[in-house]
Amino acid sequence: MDIAVRNLRDRLRGALIAAAATPMTASGEVDLDVVARYLAGLVADGATGLAVLAHTGRGPYLAPDVRAGVIERAVACAAGRGVPVLVGVGGGPCDPAEQASVAAELGADGVLVFPSDGDRVALHEEVWQAARLPMIAFDLYTRPCPAGTLRELLRHPGVAGLKTALLSDAMGCQRAIALTKEADRLAITGEDRMFGPSLLWGAEAALVGIAAASVGVTAAVLETFGGKDLGAFAAASGRLDRLAQATFTEPMEGYVQRMLWLAAAEGRVPESHAHDPYGPPLPEEERAGVVAGSR
Known about the structure:
This protein is an alpha/beta fold and 295 residues long. It is built from 12 helices and 8 strands.
C-alpha cells in the first residue's frame, strides 16, 4: 500500500464523512456561497470528513467549472480543521481520471470512485496513474461488486478502503467488510438503512448521505458505539433508523431531495436551493412526513 494511502486510511478510521448534497435551485443553478455555508455547518455539527460530488452531491451531473468550485469550497472549509475532503469521480460521461487530476490540483485528500459496468480494476488503475490520490472503492447496490473483483480492488496500492452501500443485502455487506479488513484496508459503511448493524459487523468509519442533514443523529451512533453504554447505542441507532425510514425509501433516488428538505428545515440551505432536479419528482405532501421523521 502506498504510504499516502496508508496515511489517509488511518486518518479516516472512526470518521463520520458526510456525503454532502449540492444545494441548487429547481433549474440546477449552484450558488457556491450557499455551498460553502452548508459545508461549514456540516462540520460544525459533527462531520469529521466531507465527501463532495458523490452520489448525494449529484457529482456526475455537474459541469466541470461547478465541480471545481464545490471542491474549492470544501477544501477551504476543511483547512485548519483537520477535516479530510473526498471527491466523487466517475459515474457519468466525463473522464474519471481527469476528474481525479482536477481534485488533486485543488487540494482534495482522496477520491471516491463510482462503480462502473466495465473493468473496475482497470478504472481504478487509470484514476491512480492520473492523480496519485488515495482512492475509496465503492460497492453500490445498483452495481454490486463480485467477490473476486473486490479482492483485486483491495489489493491495489492506491485503494485505502471500501465503502459499502448495498441497501438491504446484509450478507453482501458482511462479506465486503470482511474482505476489506482481510486486505488491511478501511471498511467504511455507507449503509444508511443498516448503519448500526454494519458497525457491529466491523465497519470502522462512515460515509453516508444521511449525514447530509441532521448530522448529529448519525454522529451520536458512532459516538455511543465507541462507548460502553449499550442502551445509549440502541437509542441512538433507533433514532437514526427512524430518520432513514423516512428518507431512504422508494423511490430510492428521491433520498437526495428528502435530505435537502431536511437541510432547509434545519436552516442549512435556503428554500430556493433545496432542490434536486436530477431525482424523481416527489409529492409535496411527503415533505411534512420527512421532516417529522427527523425529530
